[in-house]
Every structure is written in C-alpha cells, then in structure tokens.
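Form 12-C: Joint structure prediction
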Amino acid sequence: MTKSSDISASSLATRPFAKRVGEIEPFRVVEVLTRAKALEAKGHDIIHLEVGEPDFTTAEPIIAAGQLALANGETYYSQAAGIPELRVAISNHYKTEYGVDVAPARIMVTPGASGALLLIAALLVDAGDGMLLADPGYPCNRHFLRLVEGEGQLVPVGPEHRYQLNAKVAAEYWQDNTIGAMVASPANPTGEILTRQELSDLYDLCVKNKGHLVVDEIYHGLTYGKAAVSILEITDQAFVINSFSKYFGMTGWRLGWLVAPENAVVEMEKLAQNLFISMSTMGQHAALAAFTPETKKIFDERRDEFAKRRDYLLPELRRLGFDIPHQPAGALYLYAGISKFSNDSQQFCMDMLEKHGVAITPGLDFGRNQSNSHVRFAYTTSIERLQEAVRRMEKVLGGKD
Amino acid sequence: MTKSSDISASSLATRPFAKRVGEIEPFRVVEVLTRAKALEAKGHDIIHLEVGEPDFTTAEPIIAAGQLALANGETYYSQAAGIPELRVAISNHYKTEYGVDVAPARIMVTPGASGALLLIAALLVDAGDGMLLADPGYPCNRHFLRLVEGEGQLVPVGPEHRYQLNAKVAAEYWQDNTIGAMVASPANPTGEILTRQELSDLYDLCVKNKGHLVVDEIYHGLTYGKAAVSILEITDQAFVINSFSKYFGMTGWRLGWLVAPENAVVEMEKLAQNLFISMSTMGQHAALAAFTPETKKIFDERRDEFAKRRDYLLPELRRLGFDIPHQPAGALYLYAGISKFSNDSQQFCMDMLEKHGVAITPGLDFGRNQSNSHVRFAYTTSIERLQEAVRRMEKVLGGKD
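Section 2 - Result
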C-alpha cells in the first residue's frame, strides 16, 4: 500500500493529459471575477461589469414553483429529452412570440445551453471536422468542438459586419473540412444581431455547401428595439440553442434547450440518455412558471431596465474615448475598442480592477481577432453603479470633450 | 425563404451525422420504462424492477434546505468546481466515513456522475486511446470514451471474478493503446465490490503500465454488510467518481462529484468552466443538508430497507431458477442468468413486461458478454411488490422446488 503511494506520484505524472487539454483555454472572466472577489474580501469596493449574468434573482413565480415542486417530491429522474409539459410550453412560446410551429418532439431540454452545445458537437462533428465561428465570439463554442476532436474555425469579423459572421464572409472562409457554421444572435460579446436576410443568406450558403447551421439564440428576448429573428422563422432544418439563463433569469438552475431538425431527434435523445440521463426535475417544473403572463411582465420590466443601462452606458463610454462604432441591438454587453488607451487589454483590465475597482473582461476571452485592443462591459449592475464606474474611469482616462 | 425551405430537407439530409452516433447505443432500460409507462396508461399494473433509482423521495431535510436556498435567492451561477462549503463537506465525509484526508481542492462538484465521466474523458483520453472496462458494466462509460474519440475496451468478466475487472484479467487485456482502467465498486449491474487487495493490485498494475485508474464509487453507502473500500484509502493518484443520486437519494437533482489527483485539479476546473460553467446552485446548497446526523439516519434506514429486499429477492429468484452464483455486496441490483428459460434476454424481458407486468432490464444494456443470457433486477420497489413480482414470474416460470 505505501509502496504504491510512494512510486505513484512520479510514475503517473509521466502520462500526460489528453492533447486537447493544452488547447482548451480557461474562461478568463472567471479569473477576473475571482480576483475581484478577493479584493472585495479585503474591503475594496468593486463594480462588477465582468460577468454575463443578469443581476436579478430569479423571478418570484419561478422560485415559488420550484419550492412547490420540491414539496411535491419532484426529486426523481425525468425524461432524457425533458418533461413533456416543458417541451410543450417551449413549443407554445415559439407560436406566441414568433408565430412559428415547432413540434414539442423537436425540442429537447438540456442542462443549460452548455448541454445543448455538447449534444450538437457530439451529433455533428467527426474528428477533423471544423465549424465556422465568428471571432470575437463565445469562447466555449470552439472548446466543445475541440472536445470531440473537431475544431472551431475562427473567422475574424469587425465593425464593418457588425461583428457578425455573414454569408459572404462565411463563404470566403469555408474550407474542405468545414461542416457548417455556428452563429449567435444577439451575440456575446458584441450584442449584435443577424437580420432576417443575413440569417436566410447564411442558411442558403449552408444548404449549398451541405453544411449544418447552428444558431445560438440564448439572448433572444433581451433586445432593446425590434425583436431578434429566429432561424426557425426561416427553416426547420437548422439547430437552435436557447437557455433559461438570460431573458428568463435562471442562470444558476442550469436549464437550456435545443431545437433540432426532425431527423435528428431520435439520435439526440439517445445521446442525452447517455450523457446526461436527465436534467434537474424540480428545475424543469419551476421553469413552467416562466411562461405565464405574470412572469413575462417581470421579464419585460427587467429587459427595459437593461435597455436603460445600455442607453446610459454607451454614450458615456464613447465620451470617455472607448470605440463602439455601432449601437448593439441586444444581450447584456458593450464591446469596446481601447486603442486610445492601451494595446494590452489584459493589462488594461487588470489596472482597472486593481487600481480603480472596475471589473471588466479582456477581449482575449472572446478570440484572437484584435482581442488585445478590446474589452467587454456587461451592464449587469444598476445605473447608479454604472455612473460610479464611469466616474472612476473618467478620473484615469479623461473624457474626449 | 420558401425557396430555402423547399430544398433544405433533402440537401441537409445528405450530410450524415458524426460516425460516433452510429456506435453509441440507446440506454435500453429507458425503452423498457417507456413501454412500461404506456402499458400503465392503458390500465395495466406494472411492477417496476427496471430503473436503477431509489424509490424514496429525497430526504425531507434536503428538500427543506432546497426550498430555503430558493427563498434566499441562491439562483445565480456558482463556482465551476462547486460551492466551497460543499467541497469542504465532502472532504469531511471522507474523513468521517473512511478516515482519509482529501483536500477540498481535490474535490470537484459535477452535474451528476455523468458530468464527472465527461470531465475524466476530456482530461485523459486522446483520439485512439482505450480504457479497460468490465463487461457487464455501466454502458455509458464506453460512450463517454467514444464521445472524445477514444474507446472502451470491454473485458469479459464472469462469476469466477465476481464480475469484476481484477488486476490479473486487466493485465491480460491491456493493449498498446490502453491508457488505464475504469472500474466500479459496487458495480452496476452486478452489485459486486472490489476488495482492498483487488483495488490495490489494480492500482499497482496501472502504475506499472503508466495508466490511469478511475473508480466509480457511486454506490458507496449502499452495501449490506461491510462498507466498500474507497480507492482513496489506497492512493491519492486515482480518479474517483461519486454521486448524490444513490445513497443520498438525489437522482433528479443531478449532482455528483469527482476526486482528482492534485496535479489534475487546475485542468479539471478549466474544463468544467468551459463545459458546465456551473452546477445547480440551489441544489448544492440543498446537498449540504445531506451531511447531518439527522439525514444520515434517514439514509441508513433506507439502506437497511434495500438490504431486506435483497435478502428477500435473492433466494426467491434462485428458487425460480435464475442463476445468481454469488450474493452481491451492494448497489440496488441482482444480475441473473436466465439460461434455464431463454437465450434471448430482450425477448424474455419483453414477455415479462407485456404478458406479466414485470419490468426488468435485458443484459444487452450492460455489454456484450453473455448479455443474451442475463437480466438485471433492480430492487427499487417495496417487499410487497417484489413478492407480487415473484408470484407472477412463478406462474410462468415455475419453481425449482
């Protein structure tokens, strides 16, 4: 026994971890958050603009439904594709909000949008396959592809395309091993949407190239003007990722969903049986309360609050000298150029946090495309705190005026 | 728009799903359950012996703690490795129950044991790598390996080794691309454990071959005699998978944990950030209530009830002619040979369900080794219902006496 222990540390250490481990990057925003919390613990006042999480506790009707589900003993495994009532409720949501018929059988509840990404990578991506992704974009997408020995093919997109991967750019970057494109509308970190025409053109490109189109719609509902168009308004052959985390304010419950083409449903469910067994049963019963008029009213009030924050913060950041060429349509973010101040966004963010108590996320979290000259602001705190953040930044950066 | 839709179904259907999809099998127990529920809906009385889930609702103190966590607004993301209090509680559990020091930093909370399996596959397995697995065994293990383009290397094990993968057999089956072994103690579907000596020998073999040892301990606590030995009593260099589902009775909450060697912790956490972001925050606060003396008393009463069921069902099945050569030490299962009755366990199970209302799981769910001559009984229903199942089976199978 002791003999085993004695030789183990060195012997086992000689077998390296899988190669992908070296290629999957940490989620830097978590590092910023960790450091911010450490500073708070020392008594510093930190303004949190780093994490992409609504600052509102889950709406009361959902909380109450969760408590009731527990009282009712909803503590057992449930169906691998989700409880039928919730799949029907999501189907009704598409009818009500988009005027689109989506059969409940095509809807799978997942453990967060993260779970939906895992299922999609498992279903579609063979070793060596690539999918086109906008850079900047949500960093975990490419890591899910890497997990299954595929690759994210990062396509640099800039303000000239509202930071979106459109059909023209996608066609330029489409390679022999490309099996499709994964886009987000509204997008993280830029808050930009794809128009109906852009989505339609992208879909046509994918059809032409026999590729899959995956659209991340987790920020739907959080748009501050016209509602974002769903790809499901255009085709029933795309994959859609959605989530109860953002508009529905249920981050810590870990519930999302995906919509798949009909021919993928049986295989998706088989994968879910093996990879998840089940989602949180109580959480799913709670989520049913997200689709009542009473709860929707709460969500829409919160959305209006986010709109006010965007409308306050955007001109103020521009006044300070941040470069935000286009007013983003949705999500919780402002993606801002810092070239007036720095060419090292990591250092810039660290200084802002350490010296001024303003936590923001360096561009490096979202890709490689000009990431050193960009940062992301998440307006997930009150207007008063945003004002304080602007005051602090103004002291060090000055204003343009 | 309509143009896109018209050509889409045929065009996209020409791109096949990833190759792994054809190799990952459905969880057949789910099919049995689905058919059983359909029969119940038609008014049939079905005795459920198919699903490996305790038939007890989650213990009241955990329910209450979950409700309180919701009232307290614990609805936000939490740390990717789990909330610190829960990691400390699990560390204390190892001290109390096993007398082993496991630093909280080595413990990661996961979305079910399923999440732990995903992290381990992602961390350890390169494309083309294999891990040794006992056949029969938990079917999803090999599918997690396949997910990341590795493979489960099934090792047939029989009653002569109490259906366990021991060091001698593992050494015979170790191949050039084998990077380790994954075992379970107590095991599903056999309920058999690995002794301290067997675990120690297996570990020595892995060290000798520079391989990783992964031990699934999710049925720990559910042993009906001596407690199962944890690999952590032998080495701090193995990976351990555990769960709140079985002994702790929290299946539908989707919470598990893993214990990793110290040098794996940083990489594991990075993977968890990307693959999960977070686990259910409310669920983790609820799980803290699993470690009080009051709750442990409930768990141990339930364990005693499972022991009574095993002690009733085992001799009765033997009397009916099922072949169960060895009394299993734990878990919720009896793995039974049916060669006296049939050489087609799928058909046998279907007949039992359709004609006699007894739902059991065919051996094919657990591998290929003599799977057609075996079935699994889960004693996850009351003694009275087990008695009724025996009466029904006796009518058709007769008794040996």
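Section 3 - Comments
The longest helix of chain B spans residues 293-320. Confidence is low (pLDDT under 50) at residues 1-11 of chain B.
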